[in-house]
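A reminder from the course coordinator: this example appears on the midterm review sheet, so study it carefully.

Given structure:
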């Protein structure tokens, strides 16, 4: 599998890599969905699906290729607020560490 990635995927231009990854993921999602609705008679489609699924897991990670669904689901404003509150809580616990305020009764 690594030979396929090294010889077929890595030499591609960045734009071609993005297009390839999108088409690969579209096929995986479409086949996965359709196979739940209908029964495919052609076993080669199932073999190709398994191959593409394995291939997609072996492609190198590229940060700019996060799925659109993930980027839409993450609210960075709420994440930033949570991170600040988390830091404040850690500082509070550090300040009062060993104090009788935080001792359990």
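Designed residues:
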């Amino acid at each position: 599998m690594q030979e396929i990635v090294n010889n077929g995927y890595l030499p591609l231009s960045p734009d071609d890599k993005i297009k390839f990854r999108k088409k690969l993921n579209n096929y995986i999602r479409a086949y996965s969905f359709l196979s739940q609705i209908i029964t495919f008679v052609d076993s080669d489609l199932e073999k190709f699906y398994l191959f593409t699924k394995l291939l997609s897991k072996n492609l190198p990670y590229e940060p700019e290729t996060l799925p659109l669904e993930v980027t839409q689901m993450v609210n960075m404003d709420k994440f930033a607020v949570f991170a600040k509150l988390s830091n404040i809580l850690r500082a509070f616990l550090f300040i009062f560490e060993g104090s009788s305020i935080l001792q359990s009764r």
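The chain has five helices and no strands. The chain has a mean pLDDT of 79.
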